[in-house]
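Could you join me in thinking about how sequence relates to backbone shape in a protein? To get us started, please write out a protein record for me. Would you write everything just below, so we can both look at the same thing?
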Amino acid sequence: MDSPPENAGKGLKPTISVYTEYLSNRISSYFPAASYSNFLSRISNFYRGSSGTSKRRRRNTSLPLPFPSSAESSTAVCEASRTVGVLEDIMECIFLNMHYIQKNLEYWQSKAQGSNAKRAYFMICERGPYAFFNGTAQLLSDCVGEGSGMQHTYCLASSYISERINFLSSLRYHLATFLAQIYMKVDKVGEELVKDPEKSLSSLLVDMNDLFLKLEASIGHFHAVRQQSSSVDESYSFPLIFERLPEVNQEGSQWTDCETRDAINLIYQNVDRLNTYLAAIVTIHRKPRRATRYWIPYTCGIVGISICSLWLLRHSSLVGSSDIDNWIREAKESTVSFWNDHVEQPLISIRDDLFYTFRKRQKGAMEPEEVQLTADSLHRMLQAFTEQTKGEKAPPNATDQEMLEIVMMRYEKELMHPIQNLFSGELSRALLIQVQKLKLDIEEAMLELDQILRANEINFAILAALPAFFLSLIVIMLVRAWFKQDKKAEGRGRVARIQRRLLIVEVERKIMQLESCKEQGQEKDAQCMLGLALYYLDRLYCAVEGHARATGEWIILRQDIIDLAKPDLQTAHKLRITSRMERVYDCLLPLPKTQ
């Protein structure tokens, strides 16, 4: 946006330009200025939710008009539906434009709070290729000529940013004042409009027309001052001129249906003109587009992609190389192998273990029957040795351990004369009994190990599937983060709750500033503070509705927000309401730190 339309024919366009400014400049060179400006304003209005006179699409939620709550659904409101629609469209127009201005104002304020180095970097590197080359050339020229190039860049950046802050702040001031005047007028005549719409409709339309003319005078004067001295290269192609009601209509006490319809259409024309005008002047002072701010990384990315494309082209079949085909085949084989080893086979193993393992086991390395045979054989050997050694029959309740002690005692005696007893004694028999005991111990150990392995088959299968599980978990988290992008104050996370609580803080600040302006007799500033409070209340209203409906708090919370918007409500009562909102309602409470 920093490259003015005049640059389209000066030969200063960058050779590689894929940015919106370049396309905008190219298109503007083929269309007349008026029609092109109208075209851009229509696109901007569509993007920001506004449409033409004949077909308007409102937001799903917005701060309600201050009509009496007891008569919101009465037939009188239905009779005045045309006027209510006009007022809602005016309020929506102001809310949307103020939000658009506020976003750009917050961006420039954040830039103003940065250091001189960051502001200079913005001036040179974040305003597009044309500003980069022009700013670099100017910096080098100043450094060579005067030796104070950086200081001049710092001053230029401060002036550039402060000018946009002042412009957007002043524009927000006038729109907030206009919003407060409309809201106070509706609050004043709301009850009369509900009770007798035919009588109060004409006076309300006349008052709306007068407020539009006051806004025209305010912004027109501001526009004239801006034209005298400005660092903005682009200029406004048209002034803001609203349609006026005929003097005959303003003097009449009772209007016909045709006159009322013409007056409503005139108000709609003024709303469209305001939208078009604001779209044009705010676009000139808006923050640079994302493609403009990050054109250097994007350019590096394009260059990197181009180099990678050339490298791939050298290894592709287009130049007779089979490298890419081989890589694709290897990647396919690796993927299939990974799927089989870490997904399919582990899942099949888990399924088999869950449904078949405990009912149908395959033969293991050692079965309990074999171990029992070895144990029975050892028992008989011990029993025969004991009976032969003692010369009497062994007790029927004698354990293997007791009989093994007799064998070991005999074994120790036999070892006193090993060679003699090896051939004529019981030494060899005692050795064979010990070998049988060792065999039994080994078989029992193998049986326990086999039981452990069988019991952990499911664990081993799960361990084999862990890589695929973690990979799937990462993919799911990325997809979830992609679909659940940051929704600012409308979201459900900690950041969204902080944003909603900050909106309450802004409402409290504006209420206190409103009271201060009233005490000092600054009526205009008080209207501005009321308009800003209404803007933040509208944002809070839209942000909390879905959450409050889910928790059943919406009816009471909605009434609290409407009470905060009442111009005549005492400041102390409003502050008590904001304090209660921060403490009571679930959608406005901070999340615990443990979550």
In short: The CA atoms of residues 366 and 447 lie 5 Å apart. The chain is about 75% helix and 0% strand.
